[in-house]
Each structure stands twice: as C-alpha cells, then as structure tokens.
C-alpha cells in the first residue's frame, strides 16, 4: 500500500491526499500543544475513542461502494446494544463473575451479531427485492430499529452489567486498546473482502455500473442483500463497543455518529455514487478526524466549533476531490 | 380511460396517505369521541405550520432531483441571528421587517448550498450534510448558545395575532393563529411557481433528466440555484415563525427534525430520483406525520412506539410504489 501510494500514479489518489492531510493535522496539533497532544496518555485515549465510529464508517463504506447508503447504522448499533444489554442484565446480573459471566457475555455478543445480521437482511430485502431507494429504505428501517429499542426500554438506559463486559471497550491487549484491535481486524477483513474476493469485485462493479453488472450475469439481489448484512453486522459490533465503553445501552446513543460515519466515508475518498472506495482511505480519514478532534479539544475549542470544522472539512475535501472526478461533471448532480 | 385513471388514483401515494389519515381519525374518534373537534383540528393546524413550510421547501429540492438536509440548520440560524440582531439594533422593529430579515438570511445561506451544488457540482446530500454542521456549528460558536426568552415585542405580538378564536359548545378553547396564513401563502406561491411559470417547468424537467433539460436549452444552473435560495428563504420563514410561536429563540431547536420532514414529503409521493412531487401529497404527508406525533396515544398505541410507526409508514409509503414499479418493469420486460 505504502509503495503504491508513493508511485507516480499513487500521488493523485484521494488516499495520498488524505495521508498528507492526516500528517499535516497531526503535525499541526503536535506543534500547537506538543506536551499534551504527544503524551502517551492522549495517544492511548485517542485509540480508545475512534474505533466505535470508525466501525460505523466501515459499514457505511461497503454500502456506498454499491451506490447505496446505510442511514440505519446507528439504529442497528443501539438496537443490538439494548438487546444484549437486556440479556446481560436479566440473565447474568451485575454480580455474575467468572465462567458464568463470560458465558452470558458470549451469548449476548452472539445474539447481537445475529440481530445485526437480521437487521441488515431486512435492509437488503427492502433495497434488493422491493427496489426501495437505499436512502429511504434505511431511513425508515433506522427509525423502526431505534423505535423498537425505545419501546423495549421505555427510553431509559439499561445498566448493571457483569464486570467482564467492560473488557471489550476498556481493556488493553499488550498495551493496545481492545476496541482498536477489533477495528483493525474488521478493517483488514473488509479490505480483503473488497479487493481479494469475487464478491468484492462484483460489489465494486455493481456500484460503478449497475446495468453492466446485470448484463454480466451478476445475481444483484443476492449481492445487495449480502452487502447490507455485512453493514448490519459491522454496526452491531460498533454497538457492542459503545455498550461496553458506556457500560450501559440506550436507544438514542450516538445520534451524531450517523453524520460522522457518512462524513468519514466520503472524506476517505469513497464515491457516494458507488464504484470506488478503499479501506485505507477510510482509516486515514478516521485518523485525521480523531487528531483534529483531540487536538481541538486540547486547545479548548468548544464542541460546536468542532462540528463547524468537520462540516467545513467535508466540503473542502469534496471540492478538492471533484477536480479529479471530471466524469461526474456530466452526471446528474442530485442523488 | 376511466378505469385507467381510477387505477392510477388507487395506486397513488396521495390516496394511500389519505386513506390512512381517515382510518386514523375514525379509530381515534372511536376510542375518544372528543377527538373530532375544532380544538383538535386547530391544535394540529398550529403544530403543522412550521413542519409544513419546511416540507414544501424539501419537496422543491426533491422535485429538482436533489436532497437537502440542511434546511433545519438554516431555519434555526436565521431565527436566532435575526432575534439577536433585532434585539441589538432595534428591538421595536415591526414584525414584517423581522420576518424579512430572517427570510433574507435564510436565502443567503441557501445560496451557499446553491454555490456548492451548482458551481462546484458536489452531490447534494454531501453538501447539505456538510453545511448542516457548518451552519449549526457557526451559530452555536459565534452567535450564541443561550436560549432567549425575552423576544422583541413585535415577535411576541405576532404570536398573539389570531384569525379566529373562541370557545366550542363543549367549552374547550380554540384559536387559529395568523401563522397558519403563512403556510397557505407559501403553498399558493409554490403552486404558482411550480405550475404557472417556466421556472417551475424547468425544475420538473431538471429533476426528470438533467441532461435532457440542458439539451432543450433550459438554464439548469439558474434554476438549481433558485431552488436552493428559495428553500433557504422558506426555511428562514419557518424558523422565525417557530421562534415567534414558541415565544423563545432556542438555538438547539429544529435541528434533528429534517428526517421527519423529508419522511413527510416522501410519504406524499415525491420521488427521490426527482421530477415528481405534488403539494397535495406533501400536505397530506405532513398531516399524517403530525397526527402520528401528536395523537398516537389516542388510538391506543403507546407513544414509545412513535418511531416504529413513522418508520413503518415510510417503508410502506415508499415500498408499495417501488414494488409496483418493479413488478410493472418485470412484466414489460
């Protein structure tokens, strides 16, 4: 990857520009508050913070590759978190320890991933079989998932987990935070799926030109359903990380993560019309956002200004990227 | 021919939404006879003014083939900054000046969206997602993040101006504020622009097919730019009405409403791919969303199920036509 980025062709890719942006942001923040930004404490705390929305951005990436979008990622994450939280609270309880707690944790995780896959299957059927536009299908289903979580909890937070649950979000494996390990594994898996499997190639082809994909005898229904199932599973993993880090589950956690996930995917060079996207780009985008976010935090910039800067960064990167996307000048500007 | 149009009527979104609304009202009246009253009607009318104006704006963008999610941020930005400005410069400003300032600010912010969409040719969803956070972030960082309840007197005065008020025979109070007239004016103006001017025909044409519109000589850029400015202006109006009626300038309000508004428009049959949308449908969609948000409890569904209900309505409202279209395409192939 690094070699490719340095080759002549590589310098014009969005990933190369992103790598520069990430480095510039890192250096700027390091220069502005060197002793605090570069402290090991800050580095570790950053590594704990970004995986949860980074995983959601991965889910967004794979749906955008096919020209779709998944607006239900946060809804799925919260629904799975609420369901596994209810399992943990009702069957294990806060006092459970040792093997019993571990067993229930695995059961809860298993159920969460299954619920995520089912939610993704539901989205996939809406998009593929019924032909709904992905924006509307996932907007509606996202409300349904959030709504089910609200109805199950009455809107209040679920808490009182066994202590092992906190391990997922707060422990370190050989000094590396567990959420980061989970993110790296998922990102690597998604990279392999998108670049090395026929499924990934077909998804990219479908995103680039749906009609050509149809004429190439690709089973589009099956393809889209699998894409949304993967997105649902990734969202459920993000839900587990959020649940563990917050040590509770609530139907309306992280509603700002939806914007953030779209933003990171687009910032990462994923083409929202489909057909192009690199996991590497998304990772670099996540890092830039986190450097920016932590750095601004140290400079005591308010959360509101951070929102302003994120939005401005999104539009800026899009303006820079479109200069290369000459073919979209001809395409319709709406979606 | 007659059968064809009847069938057409039966499969239209407007009909479906109207049937759901009637069914909802029948059920509600059945469980609470007091539901069908002047008071309920005027309450729902009040509740639908702001969301109605925003929905007309959102419909306009959908017809032109784009999507705008930043209009709530524009609305709250225009409302709050107008209030701050009025209080600082001339607190006694007449309400129509205050409204004009807010509409103007809204139109300027809409023009920013228009610039990125028309000149830079960025995808509309991405642009407006970005400007949503930029506008809101700018408002909260540089203009203020405190709620203002001491509004200019003329703004409070506006909220007390009533078209009609009185007490029903059952003894309950009702009132129709002038804000409702604003919604009527917006609907009539939009109706005029969309169906009686070349500009309106161009907007439909662009939504139908951008390339075809360009080739028949339509000023695509001008029309698109107008759409975003118009949406901004309507958002500015909706925002200031929201502030005046709520008697408070709250910089945290409105944002978050955008998906419900788009849901209302889409329920009313406007298509995301552009080129199609009706005001009747949009208003019906708004009525349904407002009904669900305010009166779900009357038909015996706990209000915790509100999200599920709206979500299912969106899926049903968009799924049925999409599925029919897919079946029709499969038949003809």
Order of helices and strands of chain A: HHHHHHHHEHEEHHHHEHHHH
Distance between the termini of chain B: 24 Å
Global geometry of chain A: globular
Radius of gyration of chain B: 21 Å
Q: How many domain regions of chain B?
A: 1
Sheet/helix structural class of chain A: mainly alpha
Order of helices and strands of chain B: HHHHHHHEEHHHHHHH
> Biggest interface and which pair forms it?
A-B, 52 and 61 residues
> Tally of extended strands of chain B?
2
Helix content of chain B: over 70%
Give, in spatial order, the strands making up the sheet with the most strands of chain A: 1-4
Class by alpha and beta content of chain B: mainly alpha
The backbone outline of chain B, from C-alpha atoms, is globular
Radius of gyration of chain A: 20 Å
State the name of the first-level CATH class of chain B: Mainly Alpha
- Give the number of DSSP strands of chain A: 4
Unreliable parts of chain A? 325-335
Walk me through this protein's architecture.
The complex is a heterodimer of chains A (335) and B (333). Chain A is mostly helical and 335 residues long. Chain A contains 17 helices and four strands. In chain A, helix 6 packs across helix 13, helix 7 packs antiparallel against helix 13 and helix 14 packs across helix 15. Chain B has one domain: Orthogonal Bundle (ABC transporter involved in vitamin B12 uptake, BtuC). Chain B contains 14 helices and two strands. In chain B, a hairpin with a 5-residue loop joins strand 1 and strand 2. At the A-B interface, helix 8, helix 14, helix 16 and helix 17 of A face helix 5, helix 6, helix 12 and helix 14 of B.
How would you describe this structure in keywords?
heterodimer; A: 335 residues; mainly alpha; two-stranded antiparallel sheet; globular; disordered C terminus; B: 333 residues; two-stranded antiparallel ribbon
Summary of the model, kept short:
The complex is a heterodimer of chains A (335) and B (333). Chain A is mainly α.
């Amino acid at each position: 990857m690094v070699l490719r980025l340095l080759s002549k062709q590589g310098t014009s890719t969005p990933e190369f520009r992103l790598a520069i942006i990430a480095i510039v942001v890192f250096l700027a923040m390091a220069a502005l508050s060197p002793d605090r930004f570069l402290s090991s404490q800050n580095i570790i705390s950053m590594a704990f913070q970004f995986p949860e929305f980074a995983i959601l951005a991965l889910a967004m990436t794979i749906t955008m590759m096919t020209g779709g979008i998944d607006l239900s990622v946060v809804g799925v994450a919260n629904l799975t978190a609420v369901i596994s939280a209810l399992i943990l609270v009702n069957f294990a309880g806060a006092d459970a320890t040792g093997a019993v707690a571990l067993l229930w944790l695995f059961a809860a995780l298993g159920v969460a991933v299954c619920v995520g896959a089912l939610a993704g299957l539901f989205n996939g059927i809406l998009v593929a079989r019924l032909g709904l536009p992905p924006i509307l299908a996932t907007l509606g289903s996202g409300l349904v998932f959030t709504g089910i979580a609200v109805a199950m909890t009455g809107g209040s937070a679920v808490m009182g987990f066994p202590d092992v649950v906190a391990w997922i979000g707060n422990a370190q494996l050989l000094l590396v935070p567990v959420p980061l390990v989970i993110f790296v594994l998922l990102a690597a898996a998604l990279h392999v799926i998108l670049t090395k499997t026929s499924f990934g190639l077909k998804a990219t082809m479908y995103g680039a030109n749906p009609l050509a994909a149809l004429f190439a005898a690709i089973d589009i229904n099956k393809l889209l359903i699998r894409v949304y199932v993967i997105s649902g599973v990734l969202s459920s993993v993000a839900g587990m990380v959020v649940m563990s880090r917050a040590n509770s589950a609530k139907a309306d956690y992280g509603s700002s993560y939806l914007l953030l996930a779209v933003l990171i995917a687009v910032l990462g060079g994923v083409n929202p019309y489909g057909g192009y996207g690199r996991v590497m780009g998304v990772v670099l985008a996540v890092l830039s956002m986190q450097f920016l976010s932590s750095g601004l935090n140290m400079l005591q910039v308010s959360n509101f200004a951070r929102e302003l800067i994120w939005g401005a960064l999104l539009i800026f990167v899009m303006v820079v990227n479109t200069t290369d996307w000459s073919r979209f000048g001809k395409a319709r500007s709406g979606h | 021919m007659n059968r064809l149009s009847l069938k057409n009527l039966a499969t239209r979104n407007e009909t479906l939404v109207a049937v759901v609304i009637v069914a909802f009202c029948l059920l509600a009246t059945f469980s609470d006879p007091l539901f069908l009253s002047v008071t309920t009607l005027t309450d729902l009318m009040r509740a639908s003014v702001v969301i109605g104006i925003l929905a007309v704006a959102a419909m306009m963008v959908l017809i032109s083939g784009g999507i705008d999610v930043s209009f709530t941020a524009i609305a709250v930005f225009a409302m709050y900054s107008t209030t701050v400005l009025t209080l600082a410069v001339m607190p006694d400003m007449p309400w129509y000046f205050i409204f004009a300032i807010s509409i103007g600010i809204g139109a300027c912010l809409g023009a920013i969206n228009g610039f990125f969409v028309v000149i830079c040719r960025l995808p509309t969803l991405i642009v407006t997602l970005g400007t949503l956070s930029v506008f809101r972030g700018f408002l909260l960082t540089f203009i203020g993040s405190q709620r203002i309840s001491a509004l200019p007197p003329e703004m409070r005065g506006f909220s007390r101006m009533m078209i009609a008020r009185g007490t029903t025979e059952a003894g309950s109070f009702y009132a129709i504020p002038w804000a409702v007239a604003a919604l009527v004016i917006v609907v009539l103006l939009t109706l005029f622009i969309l169906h009686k001017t070349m500009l309106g025909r161009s907007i439909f044409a662009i939504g139908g097919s951008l390339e075809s519109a360009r080739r028949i000589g339509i000023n695509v850029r001008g029309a698109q730019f107008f759409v975003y400015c118009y949406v901004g202006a309507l958002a500015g109006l909706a925002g200031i009405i929201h502030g005046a009626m709520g008697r408070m300038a709250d910089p945290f309000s409105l944002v978050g409403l955008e998906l419900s508004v788009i849901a209302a428009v889409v329920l009313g049959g406007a298509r995301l791919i552009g080129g199609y949308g009706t005001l009747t449908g949009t208003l019906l969609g708004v009525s349904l969303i407002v009904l669900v948000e305010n009166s779900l409890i009357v038909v015996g569904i706990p209000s915790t199920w509100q999200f599920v209900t709206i979500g299912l309505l969106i899926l049903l409202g968009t799924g049925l036509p999409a599925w029919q279209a897919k079946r029709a395409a499969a038949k003809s192939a």
